[in-house]
Amino acid sequence: MHAWLCENPVGVDALNWQELPMPQPQAGEVLLEIKAASLNFPDLLIVQNKYQFKPPLPFVPGSEYAGVVQAVGEGVRHLAVGQRVACLSGTGGFGTHTIAPAALCMPLPEGLGFVDAAAFIMTYGTSHHALVDRAQLKAGETVLILGAAGGVGTAAIQIAKAMGARVIAAASTQDKCDLCLSLGADASINYSHENLREALKTLTQGKGPDVIYDPVGGDMAEQAFRSIAWRGRYLVVGFAAGPIPALPFNLALLKGASIVGVFWGDFAKREPKSNAAMLQALAHWYASGKIKPVIDRTMPMAELKAAYAHMWSRAVKGKLVMVNADA
């Protein structure tokens, strides 16, 4: 097997494509032949030693992937050799094969291909947990989605619309805004050229959004929070912009608003039955056409460094997926 090995987490340039011994699954594990693996923002942070999860060295990055079961370890009953699965395990995806925890593998229904499957669990799991579980979003409410053209943003648009919400998508270019509108967003804000607060005031007749979905952080956070509706819920999803904002607590008091943390990864570990039920529901939504990952492009696994550069340029719309030759 071959994989991109991180022996020193000082950045993407330190990754090396290496031949490694074929591993064998232990109890509770499966060996997967990887067909596709998506690139997520944590995959960038983890090779820079900036992510909250720091795996022991050396490690193979690639948190989310899909492939075919090649061997099963002791005690694995729900998966079989030859079965198609997707997995989100935190590491291991950027290679030809990997060992995956069987409990984290999602059997793929017919019709869900490897590329879409590799771009499915993290973005839709995060966005569903955020909007349905943490925000308790109701039909008819207004949702503002920041960074709306990214992976979690495009998933959030589709989930919010499936729940009957009104969606305002905020993005940094008109091209990205147009993509959001094509996915069903009711309105868009190009925050490179429009004042976010003024635009929100106009689009909500001064009321403000009931829910704000924020995977970006940075300077935009306080502007958005100052526009939130009475009893609004501000979802802290991530910090793609880099800086972690410090919001004045009096803003929450004045709006009767809630600041709600969204850590889907820990939710999946702490509440596995609830997470499994959620993923099953999402798979049904995919089958019925309610949701479908937005794929910016696919690239050969060997071009991972170029893929990282494309992500760093913030030009990605939806998800970028690495594929092995026969995927």
TrEMBL record:
One of its GO terms (molecular function) is oxidoreductase activity. InterPro entries: ADH-like_C (IPR013149), ADH-like_N (IPR013154), ER (IPR020843), GroES-like_sf (IPR011032), NAD(P)-bd_dom_sf (IPR036291), Quin_OxRdtase/zeta-crystal_CS (IPR002364), Zn-ADH-like_protein (IPR051397). Pfam families: ADH_N, ADH_zinc_N. This is NADPH:quinone oxidoreductase family protein. PROSITE patterns: QOR_ZETA_CRYSTAL. Residues 11-322 form the Enoyl reductase (ER) domain. Transmembrane segments: none annotated. CDD domains: QOR1. It comes from the Bacteria.
